[in-house]
Design goal:
Layout lengths: L1 H17 L4 H8 L3 H8 L7 H11 L44 E3 L17 E3 L12 E3 L2 E3 L12 E3 L2 E3 L12 E3 L2 E3 L12 E3 L2 E3 L8 E2 L2 E3 L2 E3 L2 E7 L2 E3 L2 E3 L2 E8 L2 E3 L8 E3 L1 E3 L1 H9 L7 E3 L5
Parallel strand pairs: 1-2, 2-4, 3-5, 4-6, 5-7, 6-8, 7-9, 8-10, 9-12, 10-13, 11-14, 12-15, 13-16, 14-17, 15-18, 17-19, 17-20, 20-21
Helix pairs in contact: 2-3
């Protein structure tokens, strides 16, 4: 951790000087003492991530600038390691990364951060930015996430479980093979996102926007779906033991999709929808209202 602290201190000092700020002037911007800035720059202490986020704004740098993995024009040389076996032995890089678990984060900009994986579990996030981020494999457990912007981010192979997601923007995200389990997802915008291979189990999905979403090999199981409109192509999907309230399929093409043991399915509206014969059979067997549905005749 010491080398990490010194590296961050060096980067703070470098960015401060490029902005032509004294330690006292920077301290005034951050509302701390000049002595605290001095300790940062000497590597004697390190600001927390909220303060780093403020420093990034003040110094005109990306938050990743402070990370060990972020390249700079003049990278800090590693300190010599004592008792090396021979010259030329590579100096190992410190294994250090952000960890925001069990925290309360408000109005923070995490856009562009990478390899977070399990670093946000059991945390509260409000009005935070994650735009265009590489978040594949992210694990969210017992999280409360409100009014955050994940638009354009890669969330494939992620696991979202026992979490509350409210009023978030997931527009144009990759959610390929993502697992949603025992979560509440409400008033979120998933427009233009890709749910291919995603699994949504024992989850409440309510009042979400799903315009032009890719539904392919998507599985809904024991999930409550309410006040949502499905459009576009739904192919090779699976709806089983789900409950439906205020749901509409409109101008949708539904192919090779399985409907079974769903509750309140008679109330689902189908408006100008096209289905293949196997999907029609599943819908009929699930007591669907077949008005507004026409069968696609495939030519041999």
């Amino acid at each position: 951790m010491m080398s990490t602290t010194k590296s961050i201190g060096s980067k703070i000092a470098e960015a401060r000087k490029k902005k032509d700020l004294s330690q006292a002037e920077l301290a005034q911007h951050v509302s701390i003492s000049p002595q605290a800035v001095g300790k940062w720059e000497r590597g004697e202490s390190m600001p927390d991530i909220t303060t780093l986020n403020r420093l990034a704004d003040i110094l005109g740098v990306d938050l990743n600038y402070f990370s060990e993995d972020f390249p700079t024009k003049e990278p800090v040389r590693p300190e010599p390691v004592l008792n090396k076996k021979r010259e030329g032995t590579p100096v190992p890089k410190p294994d250090w990364s952000w960890d925001m678990s069990q925290g309360n984060w408000t109005d923070a900009d995490f856009s562009g951060l990478k390899n977070l994986k399990e670093k946000f579990s059991s945390s509260n996030l409000k009005n935070c930015q994650f735009k265009n981020s590489e978040l594949s494999g992210l694990v969210l457990g017992k999280n409360n996430i409100e009014r955050c912007d994940f638009s354009g981010s890669d969330l494939r192979n992620s696991k979202i479980q026992s979490s509350n997601l409210l009023n978030n923007n997931f527009g144009n995200c990759s959610l390929i093979d993502t697992v949603f389990y025992k979560s509440n997802i409400e008033k979120c915008d998933f427009s233009l996102s890709d749910f291919s291979g995603a699994e949504i189990t024992e989850t409440n999905m309510e009042n979400n926007m799903v315009n032009d979403v890719v539904w392919k090999f998507t599985k809904f199981s024991r999930t409550n779906i309410s006040h949502m409109i499905f459009t576009g192509t739904i192919e090779d999907c699976h709806f089983e033991h789900c409950s439906f309230y205020g749901v509409k399929f409109e101008n949708a093409t539904i192919l090779n999709t399985f409907f079974k043991y769903n509750e309140r399915f008679k109330k689902v509206l189908f408006v100008n929808c096209k289905v293949d014969k196997i999907t029609y059979a599943f819908l009929k067997n699930n007591s669907a209202n077949l008005e507004g549905i026409s069968i696609i005749e495939f030519s041999e």
